[in-house]
């Protein structure tokens, strides 16, 4: 501790001396937040002169605390405090920014044993609706810094901490620094800091930042024993050739290779060959050359010419950068060679490397954001309504449901503020939620009249205003929509509210709303009775039903298939504690029945289509059994509570494993087995069921994987029985997911079994390539177009997921790709049947199994040989 204190005193004196000569550089545009600092307080950090303010005005949740006192001497004041978030799944800072300005955004995390328990958490850091990084604390006395260069699309940004169940999230500081828009330009995406170093510095572990760097970037010292250091005491200017403006203190040192004839080399390794990088190399001559001396050099990247010759200017910065992303490899090596005419070896002063971070999830429509913010302000709602209202899907605001489309921003479709203590009139902000389908304002103390603007919400299907203090007349348009069945209107228990007209007699005035409510209850009762009767009837039929294709892997689950009450579901899910996922139907929760894990999917009250899908799914799963179709354990239909209980699939859905969200990389054998399993489930639906069943929503998220990575089809809410009267198609409205939809079905509304084959073909292409069905870029390229382009060049190697590094049988790959492309033929007549698909996949799997049985040593000459070369003279970048 004495050493740390001495180091702190030295830094303090150095900082004071520096501030005397820098003349207080401009902090215009800086946003510097010390998290957990008492409200309405601020301070100036001694070493940097940066003014930090409290985070209290940016967030209204969390607990302010501070690091252990014995650590404060080793750290600067702006990280002495922190804010932790023991409550809520997602807590968000809301920070006003200048839209369109490029910012360096930095978040810092110093645990400092603030809780006295030494519990080291892991949690996710989000920027708006997109995950930025995972913060993993391994040492309470080491600070973690996350940095991103990003251009906000709105005049605010949300920085959110998400509890992933691995400890309490916390944060120490948030800093935003405006950058020149001419710098750090990307073709797409934002830039996450990978490496930024001051090469050749002799300052040990010291980090240079503001006021040395006008943009307050962190520059860490870096050296290597096979390099020779050069330096100057003169100022190195950056404005002449470089908008990047690396600080003079960084540019005043450089390195050259100790062996004057050797190249100057450095490299870094990547976790995935698909990761994209932008590189910025800063050069300045720091030696005054004699007349007979010269320094010029060329640069290569992975052995290929990259730039040159470059002659660095004396005491003036030149920045070289990659105009487009560098990608396609897991190792990147830069070598700098002196030219034939150069008498001196090459040099370099500073290096920056950034990885591309794609933040693809759109923020909620701005009109909806403004509207819900106005509603929150009007009523002073106390719920944890922070960050983006809708996105990401798993963290939408409590009481909200939203629509999600790949091409548009999320829209609020459901607002449930029942029993929320609302006082006053119905907020005009609701009128701006133009896509609203479901509105529940019941059980509050709302007063005044029912506003006419509710009639103008053209998509509104359910309106519940019961048990308030509303008065006056119900707008005639609402009553008309209720009478024609397009709106479920509930206005009971409002003593002073009457129907349309003059409201002279209270008896007559309440007839319409009461009749509407009773009518709705009668219809709902009839639907419930019919479904319960149908479910019980099918339950009895199942006892004597024998499926020849059946191969139930978990008979213990099948034996307990029954109807559950809502209170039983609460016990099974521990009061719906753990959410596994969320979709258009509703949320899926983890549960436990007699020691067996299950998944419980609950219908959201605001899901209009979900009610129909609930019936469809129950109807199908009560009669269909196959080892590659998810098992229905039971169901709940109690009042407005509807739920389905399935066997638990430990490894989630297939898309998670292909998109890189899971740690395990699926081998070629794994992929073939999963494809074969899913194909067998679909083949059974088409050919083993009477009548046949068309799934209509085959996609990677609807293929689930158990603990052994065996695949099962799921989500049958859109499934449709196919007639056996000899017809070739069914004419029906188009349903499914963009990217997977059969183009013939989309154009003609003619649904056939081959529509599923097309969707499954897209799934096969995703399994092969690990690319999404539709690329999330400006071009919106479909995976089949991308594969077809490479196939025309005969390039099978680059079609297959590069994470496999060529570890597959080439003949198996060709057969797999050709089968997938046959499935996505534009004309359904040219597509194979699912029975043919299963046969082809079994052949592919057999070929791969024969290769793995022989071992990698006996791979045939058609397969790729992988070499891992290490150049000892090249230091690792990290």
What can you see in these coordinates?
There is one protein chain. Helix content is 23%, strand content 26%. It is of the alpha+beta class. It has 5 domains: 29-178, Jelly Rolls, CATH 2.60.120.430; 194-357, Jelly Rolls, CATH 2.60.120; 366-522, Leucine-rich repeat, LRR (right-handed beta-alpha superhelix) (Alpha-Beta Horseshoe); 577-648, Phosphorylase Kinase, domain 1; 654-857, Transferase(Phosphotransferase) domain 1 (Transferase(Phosphotransferase), domain 1), CATH 1.10.510. Strands 1, 2, 3, 7, 10, 13, 14, 15, 16, 20, 23 and 25 form a 12-stranded mixed β-sheet that branches. The chain has a 6-stranded mixed β-sheet with strand order 35-39-40-38-37-36. Strands 26-27-29-31-33 form a 5-stranded mixed β-sheet. Helix 13 packs antiparallel against helix 15. Mean pLDDT is 83; it is low at 1-24, 504-560 and 856-878.
What's the short story on this structure?
By secondary structure, the protein is an alpha+beta fold. Helices cover 23% and strands 26% of the residues. The protein has five domains: 29-178, Jelly Rolls; 194-357, Jelly Rolls; 366-522, Ribonuclease Inhibitor (Leucine-rich repeat, LRR (right-handed beta-alpha superhelix)); 577-648, Phosphorylase Kinase, domain 1, CATH 3.30.200.20; 654-857, Transferase(Phosphotransferase), domain 1, CATH 1.10.510.
């Amino acid at each position: 501790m004495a050493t740390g204190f001495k180091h702190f005193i030295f830094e303090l004196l150095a900082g004071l001396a520096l501030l005397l000569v820098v003349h207080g550089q401009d902090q215009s545009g800086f946003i510097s937040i010390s998290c957990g600092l008492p409200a309405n307080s601020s301070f100036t950090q001694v070493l940097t002169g940066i003014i930090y303010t409290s985070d209290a005005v940016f967030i209204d949740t969390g607990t302010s605390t501070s690091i252990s006192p014995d650590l404060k001497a080793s750290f600067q004041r702006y990280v002495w405090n922190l804010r932790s978030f023991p409550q809520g799944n997602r807590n968000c800072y809301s920070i006003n920014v200048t839209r369109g300005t490029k910012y360096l955004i930095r978040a810092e995390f110093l645990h400092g044993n603030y809780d006295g328990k030494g519990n080291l958490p892991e949690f996710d850091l989000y920027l708006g609706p997109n995950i930025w990084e995972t913060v993993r604390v391994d040492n309470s006395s080491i600070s973690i810094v996350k940095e991103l260069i990003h251009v906000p699309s709105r005049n605010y940004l949300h920085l959110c901490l998400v509890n992933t169940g691995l400890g309490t999230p916390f944060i120490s500081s948030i800093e935003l620094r405006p950058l020149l828009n001419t710098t750090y330009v990307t073709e797409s995406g934002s830039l996450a800091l990978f490496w930024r170093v001051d090469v050749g510095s002799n300052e040990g572990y010291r980090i240079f930042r503001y006021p040395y760097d006008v943009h307050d970037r962190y520059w860490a010292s870096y050296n290597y024993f096979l390099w020779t250091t050069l330096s100057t005491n003169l100022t190195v200017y950056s404005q002449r050739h470089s908008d990047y403006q690396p600080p003079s203190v960084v540019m005043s040192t450089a390195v050259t290779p100790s062996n004057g004839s050797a190249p100057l080399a450095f490299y870094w390794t990547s976790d995935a060959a698909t990761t994209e990088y932008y590189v910025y190399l800063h050069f300045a001559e720091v030696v005054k050359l004699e007349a007979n001396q010269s320094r010029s050099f060329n640069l290569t990247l992975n052995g290929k010419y990259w730039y040159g010759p470059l002659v660095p200017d004396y005491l003036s910065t030149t920045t070289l950068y990659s105009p487009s992303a560098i990608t396609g490899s897991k190792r990147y090596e830069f070598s700098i060679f002196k030219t034939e005419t150069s008498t001196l070896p090459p040099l370099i002063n500073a290096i920056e490397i950034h990885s591309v971070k794609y933040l693809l999830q759109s923020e909620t429509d701005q009109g909806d954001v403004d509207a819900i913010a106005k509603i929150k302000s009007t009523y002073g709602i106390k719920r944890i309504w922070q960050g983006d209202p809708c996105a990401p899907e798993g963290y939408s605001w409590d009481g909200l449901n939203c629509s999600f489309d790949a091409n548009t921003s999320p829209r609020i479709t459901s607002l449930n503020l029942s029993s929320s203590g609302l006082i006053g009139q119905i907020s005009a902000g609701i009128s701006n939620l133009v896509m609203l389908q479901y509105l529940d304002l019941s059980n509050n103390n709302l007063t005044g009249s029912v506003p006419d603007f509710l009639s103008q919400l053209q998509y509104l299907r359910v309106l519940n205003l019961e048990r308030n203090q509303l008065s006056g007349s119900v707008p005639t348009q609402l009553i008309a929509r209720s009478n024609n069945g397009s709106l479920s209107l509930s206005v009971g228990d409002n003593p002073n509210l009457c129907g349309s007209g003059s409201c002279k007699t209270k008896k007559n005035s309440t007839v319409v709303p009461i009749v509407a409510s009773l009518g709705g209850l009668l219809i709902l009762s009839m639907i419930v009775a019919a479904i319960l009767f149908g479910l019980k009837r099918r339950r009895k039929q199942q006892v004597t039903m024998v499926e020849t294709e059946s191969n139930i892997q978990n008979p213990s689950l099948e034996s307990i298939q029954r109807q559950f009450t809502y209170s039983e579901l609460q016990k099974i899910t521990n009061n719906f504690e753990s959410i596994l996922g969320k979709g258009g139907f509703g949320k899926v929760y983890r549960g436990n029945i007699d020691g067996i894990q299950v998944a419980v999917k609950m219908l959201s009250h605001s899901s209009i289509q979900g009610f129909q899908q609930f019936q469809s799914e129950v109807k199908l799963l009560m009669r269909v059994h196959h080892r590659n179709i998810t098992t229905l354990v039971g169901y709940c239909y109690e009042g407005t509570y509807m739920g389905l209980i399935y066997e638990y699939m430990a490894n989630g859905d297939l898309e998670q494993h292909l998109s890189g969200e899971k740690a395990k990389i699926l081998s070629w054998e794994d992929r073939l087995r999963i494809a074969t399993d899913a194909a067998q489930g679909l083949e059974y639906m088409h050919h083993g069921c009477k009548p046949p069943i068309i799934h209509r929503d085959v996609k990677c998220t609807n293929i689930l994987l158990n603990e052994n990575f065996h695949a099962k089809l799921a989500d049958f809410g859109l499934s449709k029985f196919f007639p056996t009267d000899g017809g070739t198609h069914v004419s029906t409205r188009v349903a499914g997911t963009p990217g997977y939809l059969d183009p013939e079905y989309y154009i003609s509304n003619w649904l056939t079994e081959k529509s599923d084959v097309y969707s499954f073909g897209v799934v096969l292409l995703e399994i092969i390539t690990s690319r999404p069905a539709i690329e999330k870029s400006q071009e919106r390229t479909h995976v089949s177009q991308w594969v077809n382009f490479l196939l025309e060049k005969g390039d099978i190697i680059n079609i297959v997921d590069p994470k496999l590094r060529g570890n597959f049988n080439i003949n198996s790959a060709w057969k797999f790709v050709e089968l997938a492309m046959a499935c996505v033929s534009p004309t359904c007549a040219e597509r194979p049947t699912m029975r043919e698909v299963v046969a082809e996949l079994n052949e592919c799997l057999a070929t791969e199994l024969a290769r793995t049985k022989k071992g990698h040593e006996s791979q045939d000459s058609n397969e790729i040989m992988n070499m891992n070369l290490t150049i000892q003279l090249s230091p690792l970048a990290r």
